[in-house]
Design goal:
The strands form 2 sheets. A 5-stranded mixed β-sheet has the order 3-4-2-1-6, with helices on both faces. Strand 3 and strand 4 form a beta hairpin. It is globular and about 65 Å long. It is of the alpha/beta class. The protein contains 11 helices and 7 strands. Helix 6 runs antiparallel to helix 7, helix 7 packs parallel to helix 10 and helix 9 runs antiparallel to helix 10.
Length: about 270
């Protein structure tokens, strides 16, 4: 039975699926987003957002194929829409901010109650922001990686260099995403990132593109260090030699971090 459903979805067109969904009393809104809503290319996937009456099934997303294309189908409900309607400030990189970004650039296909249309109008008064905690997390990750990668590079052991080859793969990717986070710019995917660099920071893009073209590990580390320096922004700088960076269980507020540093100083210097 499941295989039959998968086969039908694979062959079903997006238009036919939307027509079917419209007939369900459970579906209170549908819109396409990304290139699906504008100008799809042969390489495009299908991006579809469905708003349910109530998400009693607790479904977040579904990945499948439609028209022989990979398809992302995301699910929300009326309660979610009503909640973000009442909020003025929303997390840009969370699903709240993503939903609004998709809705603004999307194409509404089904809106029987006017829910999506009114919410799109309300987005003009919304503020999307990056949490301070999110910025600090990114800053901690890239500094941690920077120290570890330099330590691996300075080793004379082949095992460390082999590990560094792997570490650089994800370390460079984290530099790119952190570049946006530290500047308070929402992350909207790799294509948007490249478009941003082309317009605003060609030198950074040149460094990024040079990494995979450089065979020598030593030379890749030189490029990586330059990327690291250009990723840092504002108060988020390279850690000093005498750094003490606490990692709290829950919150990263400055007051919490200061308290943890004070705790460590008492704990590490107290004489029993």
């Amino acid at each position: 039975h499941t295989d039959v459903i998968r086969s039908l979805l694979h062959m079903m067109s997006l238009d036919n699926l939307i027509s079917t969904l419209k007939r369900s009393h459970r579906v209170r809104g549908i819109f396409t987003t990304g290139s699906t809503a504008t100008a799809p290319t042969p390489a495009s996937d299908i991006d579809l957002v469905i708003v349910l009456d109530r998400n009693t099934e607790q479904i977040k997303a579904l990945y499948t194929t439609l028209e022989n294309r990979f398809s992302d189908i995301f699910f929300f409900d009326r309660a979610f829409c009503e909640r973000i309607r009442k909020q003025r400030r929303l997390s840009a990189n969370g699903f709240d901010g993503m939903f609004l970004t998709w809705l603004i650039s999307g194409r509404i296909m089904h809106d029987p109650d006017g829910l999506l249309t009114s919410l799109r109008e309300a987005t003009k008064k919304k503020i999307l922001y990056i949490h301070t905690e999110e910025k600090r997390d990114a800053w901690v990750r890239i500094n941690y990686n920077f120290i570890a990668n330099n330590r691996h590079a300075s080793s004379a052991e082949a095992a460390y260099h082999a590990a560094l080859e792997l570490r650089l793969m994800y370390s460079v990717a984290e530099l790119v995403t952190s570049y946006f986070t530290l500047r308070g710019i929402p992350w909207r995917g790799e294509k948007s990132a490249f478009a941003y660099f082309l317009k605003h920071d060609r030198p950074y893009l040149n460094l990024l593109m040079a990494i995979p073209r450089t065979v020598s590990l030593d030379k890749r580390m030189v490029i990586y260090r330059r990327m690291f320096s250009r990723t840092l922004h504002g108060p988020y700088r390279r850690w000093k030699k005498s750094f003490v960076i606490p990692i709290p269980l829950v919150s990263n507020h400055d007051s919490v971090n200061a308290g943890l540093i004070a705790f460590w100083e008492r704990l590490s210097r107290r004489k029993e």
